[in-house]
Amino acid sequence: MIVRKIQTMGIALSALVFSAPALTQDLNLPREKVELVAPPFVHPHEQATEQGPRIVEFKLVAEEKQFVIDGEGTKIHAMTFNGSIPGPLMVVHEGDYVELTLVNPAENSMPHNIDFHAATGALGGGGLSLVNPGEQVVLRWKADRSGVFVYHCAPGGPMTPWHVVSGMRGAIMVLPRDGLRDGAGNPLQYDRAYYIGENDFYVPRDKDGKFKSYASWGDAYADAVSAMRSLTPTHVVFNGKVGALTGQNALTSKVGEAVLIVHSQANRDSRPHLIGGHGDFVWETGKFSNRPETNLETWFIRGGSAGAALYRFRQPGIYAYLTHNLIEAVELGATAHFKVDGTWNDDLMTQVKAPEAIPPNVRGEREHPVQSARQRN
Amino acid sequence: MSFGLKFKCALAAAGGVAASLGIMLASVANGPDRGITAIAGPLVVELQPGSVRYHAAGDFSRNGRPASPPKTTVSIRQPLVIMKYQVTAAEYQRCVEGHACSPLDPGTTPASDRPAVKISWRDANSYADWLSARTGALYRLPTDEEWAYAAASRFQDEALPDVDGGDPAQLWLARYEMESSREGLIEKEPRSIGSYGANENGLIDLAGNVWEWTSTCFVRQAIDANGQPIGTATTNCGVRVAEGRHRAYVPEFVRDVRSGGCMTGAPPANLGFRLVRDGSRDRLRSLVESVQGFLSSVLVL
């Protein structure tokens, strides 16, 4: 019943799509077809390019599927782009055209579309990309400004937040044609890039506090909206699942490497922090035409935006990359780990003396002022 | 620095214990004037004295650097009478109903075929006291070495190798690799009693996905080149050893260990317990330990 209603809404929106002017004019530009890769990885790309603008072709497939979001096996009816949460990171250069084929397979139950925050007009493309199950659409837009930007499904009304918190969110990186620059205009390069998409989930609970599961998306909808309206996520995770980027799936690097970390959050604020490291250069609002901030301890990702941080590892070991709302990081899941190989730098840090029992004389000195304080009270 | 970090991580990631046994309800009176229902003791296995050679629990350092724990031989001098099964959720629930144990975690069904999980060290001790009062025998948590002895081939005597003494990061990386290499094997949902089978001593479900609390406190000890202790150890009984697929150090009030944030690979999936039954001679030691533990936790935490 609910699914039918959703489909009806989709058909109504489709009518709008068909009444819009069709994008038929051809651009006389070279084309490049890019195979997207699942996060946290990023498809191969040039950081700076000497080539002229081109049409970069991507394909996203809307996949409605069951998704396990924590170690307890909590399952949600997820909606995804290309099967991952978040959807894959796309990389183009400023001045390129993004030509996206959005496929909504017949086995899906709902209409989907895509709103690119980097695109101009038609609700970021959402108004020209709504497809029902069994349809596909091709949308082209000009990447006329650089930065990292969120994209997400926005089928309209209450469907929009539901689709977004169910996983239909991702990011695109539009690089300046001559690459990244520091505040003084010097070029910046990265040795590897990782893409972290943060997702807040709102899983309904039963009266005993256990997470509920449902037979279908339609069955889940009413409870899901109630849970969402609490504005209290049950899970805040990186890349779709508690532990998606820890343990065997931890991110890797080595001392001396510069790593670009793209972080997106389509719905809610976040505070990335690298424990034991920093952001050497951080585009907190994600837009490369602004000077990067330097040496940040924590940076702020506004809900509905993406940011980028560049850091060169100086010290080996295990690093936690998390949101520095530590309750969300530890209790709700928003933690990733970096395993960094290399040689320890004693100059940066050393344990001068290992933990040992407090020597008696030190204890004596400490006890005295404490006692005095007590006496004063 | 390295120890401090590691320790914090151990706190954040520790795991627990709690298993339960087939306690038989019985109509045997245990002083009807006390108004309580007496119960027969749980099924136990009696192990003959012997010894276990293993890497000691705790943090060890040599020349001020992290060191691999020394391998020691520990003798079990008395017969060890230990529960065959982990304490079940239903058994624990009886203690709750007797107002002697804290309630199970909301949402946990007190099933008779599932181990009690989300059990803190305190919970396990409350249960031991309750069970002792109702059976007239003395039940307590096993020590780490008793657990290792009883677990026999189920005991995972893992120890990190000594790494380059000047580079603390290598130890963290090695530990992280070791922990994360096994995490895929551990599911969180407790299985029915008996799912993990028996070891050669006839003990059921050791080293499954429920870790078991021990009475052993966390210690930090400096050692010499031969692994012999130097000076006195620092003992923190606010943190106890939990045993299972790997050894974990868990704050005694924690019921469920979460990973995240700190540099932890794979914390115990669940905390439960099983108990040993003592002769009277050990009762005093056990009492002393409880008092020590209480004092330490108050002082430390």
How would you explain this protein's 3D organization?
The complex is a heterodimer of chains A (377) and B (301). Chain A is of the alpha+beta class and 377 residues long. Chain A is built from 5 helices and 21 strands. Chain A has a 6-stranded mixed β-sheet. In chain A, strands 1, 2, 3, 5 and 7 form a 5-stranded mixed β-sheet that branches. A 4-stranded mixed β-sheet of chain A has the order 4-9-8-6. Residues 1-22 and 366-377 of chain A have low confidence and may be disordered. Chain B has helices spanning 2-13, 89-97, 121-135, 144-151, 168-182, 281-300; strands spanning 17-18, 44-47, 50-55, 59-62, 65-67, 71-76, 80-83, 138-140, 211-223, 229-243, 248-251, 271-273, 276-278. Chain B has 6 helices and 13 strands. Chain B has 2 domains: 3-34 and 284-300; 44-280, paralog of FGE (formylglycine-generating enzyme). In chain B, the strands form 3 sheets. In chain B, strands 1, 4, 5, 9, 10, 11 and 12 form a 7-stranded mixed β-sheet that branches. With 301 residues, chain B is α+β, with helices and mostly antiparallel strands. The longest helix of chain B has 20 residues, at 281-300. In chain B, strand 10 (229-243) and strand 11 (248-251) form a beta hairpin. Classes of the chains: A alpha+beta (377), B alpha+beta (301).
